[in-house]
Amino acid sequence: MSQVDDDGKADVEDLLRYPPTCWSRAFFDTTCKKSSVDNNLTESFNSWILQARQKPIIKMLEEIRIKVMNMLNDNEAEVMGWGGEYSPKTLNLYNQFMRIVQKCHLNGSADQGYEVTEGSDRHIVNLGAKKCTCRTCDLCGIPHPHAICALLYKKQDPLSEIHWFLSKETYLQTYSHKL
Fold first, then answer.
1. pTM to 2 decimal places
2. What does the alpha-carbon distance between residue 118 and residue 112 come to, in Å, rounded to a whole number?
């Protein structure tokens, strides 16, 4: 905190009142497989129900029910249109990672896995535990360049390592509950 000027000191003190799991990627929970965190849910929901909010409670809830029902149907139809096992967004990120793999070099196996360098960065990939010191795969559920490099070295298909949370089947289960 000694590097922060007086103007930012109050901000730092406010931030430090919260546990690092709320504001630092280094401490994010890896269960959800989402690499970004934001709290726009309330604002988005309020915007989504803007017209319904002005109505009496029963009519408002009925309109929200219909909006949710239509949203579930629309999302299910979109997922059914996916050409593969994973969403286009997931496959796009995977393909970006595959391009980065060309810049990675597997240095050999270490005690806990494989040592992979990417430029000046060096990471240890433990395929058995599905962990890497960069934590990218832990956060997003898609094999990142370091893991892909190790998987290709072992002659394994990196696509098979995409987390089941991101599969077409899981999305369809999410949208299968009808109102």
1. 0.68
2. 18
Cα of first residue to Cα of last residue in the chain, in angstroms, is 52
pLDDT in tens, 51-84: 888 899 999 999 999 999 999 999 999 999 999 9
Longest dimension (CA), the chain: 66
Structure-block tokens of residue 150? 């190790």
Rounded distance between C-alpha atoms, residue 76 and residue 90, angstroms: 17
Q: What is the pLDDT of residue 1?
A: 44
The CB density around residue 116, as the number of other CB atoms within 10 Å, is 28
Of the candidates 157, 160, 159, 146, the one whose C-alpha atom is nearest the C-alpha of residue 114 is 146
> Residue by residue, what is the 3-state secondary structure of 37-56?
CCCCHHHHHHHHCCCHHHCC
